[in-house]
Amino acid sequence: MTSTAPSTGIVRLSERAPHVSGADMVASLVPPPQFSDASFASYRADDAYPSQQDAKDTLMEFAGGTAPQAKKGLFRRAPKTPERKPGVYLDGGFGVGKTHLLASIYHAMPARRKYFGSFIEYTALVGAIGYQQTVELFRGADLLCIDEFELDDPGDTMVMTRLLGELVATGTKLAATSNTPPNALGEGRFAAQDFLREISAMSASFETLRIDGVDFRQRAVDGHAVVLADDGYEQAISAAAASGVVSDDAFDALIRHLATVHPSRYIRLIEGLSTIGLRDVTVLTDQSAALRFVAFIDRAYDAQIPLRATGAPLDTVFGDEMLAGGYRKKYLRAISRLIALTHS
Fold first, then answer.
1. What is the pLDDT of residues 40-76, one digit of tens each?
2. 182 touches 303 (CB < 8 A)
C-alpha cells in the first residue's frame, strides 16, 4: 500500500495484492490498535471470577510492576518472593481478557527491546527471513509476547519451541496465550495441558495462569451476527464510503482471493479500511478456506473494522461438521468476533 491510496471510497479486497517484507513484519510486532493503550489499570477483573484478579496481580509482578503485598509486622521478616519462571502462559476461554493482559505486560515492562505478535506472525517471519536470522533478530530481546499460540501444526509448534528455547537461554522473558471454548463443560477446557505437552522441551519455563470467565464480546450484544437486506447493505456501504475507505466484495470472491495471499499479509490486505462489506455470505465447506477466513477475521478484529454483510449470518459460516472437528476452538473464537464486528 502507498501514500497515494484514497482516503474515501469503495475498494475490492479481491483486487489487492499486498507485499510484506521481513522488515515490515518486524515493525508490526506491537500490540494491535485496540490494545495500544491497554494497561493493568484498565483491565476490569470480574468479581465473579477471582482468577482474573489473581492473574492480574501475578502479571503485574512479572512485568516489573507492583502487586498487592501482604502487610508486614514491625519486626517480621518479609517472606521471600519465589523466583519467577521466565515465561507465563495465560490459559482460558476466549473473551476473558487474555490479550488485554498480554498487551498490559508489553506496555508495563520497562524493556528496551520487546515484541508483541500473534503466533502466525512469528512463524511467518521465520518463513520470510529464515530460522537463524530470526534467532539473531530476537537474541537479546527483553520480552516476547505471543498471542493465540497455535498447536495445530506440529512443524510450526516445533519451530517456535526451538526458537523460544534459544531465546530463554539468553535471558528473554516470554508471555503467551491461547484459546479454549468458554463454559464448555470440560470439553477442551484446560488448554494448558495441550500447550505444555506440545512444547514439552519448554514446559518447565512457563508458569500457567488460569483465567476463568465469560466472553465479554457477548455480554452486550445479541447472540447472532447482524444480516442486512440488499438495500440496507447498499445504504450502509455508501454512507461509510463517504467518510472512509470501504471494501465491497462478494463473499465467494474474497474466499478465493484469500487463498492467493499469505495469512501474514492479511493485515496489509485490510490496511486503511473503515468498514468491510461482504455480499452473499454462504456456509463454508472447505476446511482450508475456513481456516484462512478465521485468520482474516482475526486481523479484522485486531484492527476493529466493522463488518456489513448480506446472505447467511456470518456466525453460521462454519458448518456443524467443522464445529465438531479438531479446529472447533478456532471457529468458536471467530464466531464470537464476527458477531461483535457486525454489531460495531
1. 999 999 999 999 999 999 999 999 855 545 444 544 5
2. no
Range of the domain at 309: 9-21+219-343
Write the burial class of residue 321 (CB in 10 Å: 0-12 exposed, 13-18 middle, 19+ buried): exposed
Are both 252 and 321 inside the same structural domain?
yes
Domain-terminating residue out of 182, 213, 244: 213
Pairing verdict, β 273-281 and 245-250 = parallel
Residue 135: its pLDDT value, please? 94
The DSSP secondary-structure symbol of 108 reads: H
HEC states along 187-239? Answer: CCCCHHHHHHHHCCCCHHHEEEEEECCCCHHHCCCCCCCCCCCHHHHHHHHHH
* 8 A C-beta contact, residue 143 and residue 64: no
pLDDT digits (tens, 9 = 90+) for 184-233: 333 344 456 666 676 777 778 889 898 988 766 555 555 789 999 999 99
For residue 245, what are the β-bridge partners? Answer: 9, 273
